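wait is this the right file?? whatever heres the structure
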């Protein structure tokens, strides 16, 4: 193996999957894990304890990373929201790869599962790429596509993306540990999104057309994760926070959760949309 030390920087299922894959090839004493985002019930911490792997909680993440870097360090950024400083990215002591929820070079930044739905894309995907000082701009190592249609939700994209990301990582890992894989050029891309950006500012209106309302509901649907916050529904001068929804098109259920009771039903051409609201 060409690395002296391996650091996983991230959280959630994809970080756990990377850890499990590494343990098939690498001595656990060479693996270190930094959780990049606090979780009250951390699967990553639990798996580190189970496998006797050194674990660092989500506190002073960059300081922890700096302390762990030695010559020939491999950093795996997996579902990581912390920006790695330029001086680390450009260090000749470290090689960094990152897991990204889009089919690069397009759709750099965050909350991409939502934006591809909102922008009516026909496909998205996942990408493992090298990390340099620019956002999601390093050479592409491995990527896979996810087809989208009018039933796709943000949560479904995340679920499919995690599975494809795991398969990509396991495919490239044995070779990557022995030799640097030549990546392909990562172009500029058309779309870049920040965490401060929200489709339609997180609100739909009773007067919006059915296709837009249905698309927005799927855009903000991360299940219990609510990664983009709670979508709001405006009716006149009142605003409600949406709890659940059901979308029917041409009388066929296509997305959401089939509801036995609801607060509002909207009939918009081919679309019939049912909504329940949070208690005020």
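ok assuming it is, sequence goes like this
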């Amino acid at each position: 193996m060409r690395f002296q030390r391996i650091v996983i920087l991230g959280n959630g299922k994809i970080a756990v999957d990377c850890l499990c894959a590494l343990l098939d090839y690498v001595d656990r004493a060479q693996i270190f894990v930094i959780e990049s985002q606090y979780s009250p019930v951390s699967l990553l911490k639990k798996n580190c304890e189970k496998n006797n792997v050194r674990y660092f909680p989500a506190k002073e993440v960059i300081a922890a990373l700096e302390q762990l870097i030695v010559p020939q360090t491999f950093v795996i950024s997996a579902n990581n929201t912390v920006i790695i400083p330029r001086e680390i990215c450009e260090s000749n002591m470290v090689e960094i790869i990152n897991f990204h929820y889009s089919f690069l070079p397009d759709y750099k930044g965050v909350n991409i599962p939502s934006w591809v739905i909102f922008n009516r894309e026909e496909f998205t995907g996942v990408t493992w790429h090298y990390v340099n000082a620019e956002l999601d701009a390093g050479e592409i190592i491995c990527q896979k596509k996810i087809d989208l249609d009018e039933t796709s939700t943000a949560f479904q994209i995340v679920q499919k993306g995690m599975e494809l990301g795991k398969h990509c990582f396991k495919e490239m890992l044995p070779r990557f540990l022995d030799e640097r894989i030549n990546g392909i050029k990562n172009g500029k891309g058309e779309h870049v999104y920040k965490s401060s950006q929200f489709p339609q500012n997180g609100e739909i209106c009773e007067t919006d057309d059915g296709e837009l309302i249905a698309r927005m509901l799927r855009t903000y649907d991360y299940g219990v994760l609510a990664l983009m916050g709670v979508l709001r529904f405006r009716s006149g001068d009142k605003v409600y926070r949406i709890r659940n929804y059901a979308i029917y098109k041409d009388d066929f259920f296509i997305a959401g959760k089939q509801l036995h009771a609801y607060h509002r039903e909207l009939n918009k051409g081919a679309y019939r949309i049912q909504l329940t609201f949070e208690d005020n």
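The helical segments are 12-22, 43-51, 61-68, 86-89, 112-118, 154-178, 210-219. so i think its the right one actually
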